[in-house]
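Follow-up to my earlier ticket, as requested here are the two runs.
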Amino acid sequence: MSDQKLFLAIFLGTRDNPRMKAWSALPEAERHAREKEGIAAWHAWVEKHKASIADFGGPVGKTKSIGEKGVVDTSNALSGFTVVRAASHEEAAKLFEGHPHFSIFPGDSVEVMPVLPIPGA
């Protein structure tokens, strides 16, 4: 795997996404059935790509922003992350085509970016 590089995949989703609004409006039983289907599909995706997964990652919670004015509560579209290994950026991106995050769940997208070396390290 020496030719493999690391890529960070971030899962994005917003509450004002029309698909999220439709998801939230589903009857509870139907939403739970879709959640069960989505979780099974996510586990199947992990099983299929387990050789490429460097860090399974997971969902992320509430956000704090730290800057010149200190620490403040904020929000963003980040909902989770995974780290994968692939020979190229294109190959890493292809791992997420049809991912349950947006094909079953109402997530917006998955963005994939290379993890670059630290300059001077």
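Run two:
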Amino acid sequence: MSNDEHIYRQILKAIVEHQLPPGARLPEDRLSEAFGVSRTGIRKVLQRLALEHFVVIEKNKGAQVNRPSEAEASEVLDSRILIEPQLIPALLAHWDAAQSKRFRAMAQEEKQAEAANMLADSIQLTARFHYELATLSGNKVLASFIEQLCYRSSLILAAYGTHGSVGCECGDHAQLLDLLDQKNASKAQNWMSHHLKHIKSSLILESKPEENIDFQRLFGR
């Protein structure tokens, strides 16, 4: 793993696990000192996180952890609830044993991350599962929209979610795969709708004050 990738994963993990709360400032100089790398290296990582909507970079203000509003959180999940179940019939047209095997491998990765208490990995893996399903529908416009919604959902789960937001409490993805194997579109649609509504209901939509963050303690080697 490259040094940039290591730093990216460490900062992402801290955001998702609430060690860096929404709105927390991310000073390049302090992060550079904590990781023992140049500010240029830190800047590259922050730009990558900004592309994924986990970080906001403002001119003359620097970077900070993105702070999705409560209204945005609700709207993003509501959009997914409206769209994702409707893609089920289209993706079933492309569903076969090879796809079932591929998605079951993804679901197994999610379970392993959850069992290891790796919340950041769990959030990323569940997002990948959902947008890969959307891609399989063949509707490139909606699949691209779902991909962006999944990125934004990842940040929302990091800001407002709990372990129950990405774990089995919201439904095991293997249950959905069983329904897809059975080609049962209506039950698969109902499962997806219930799954996403459960994720939304698990969010704790309240703002948390920013704390004085000790980057050296958090990331120092």
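The only thing I checked on run two: The mean pLDDT is 88. Let me know what else you need.
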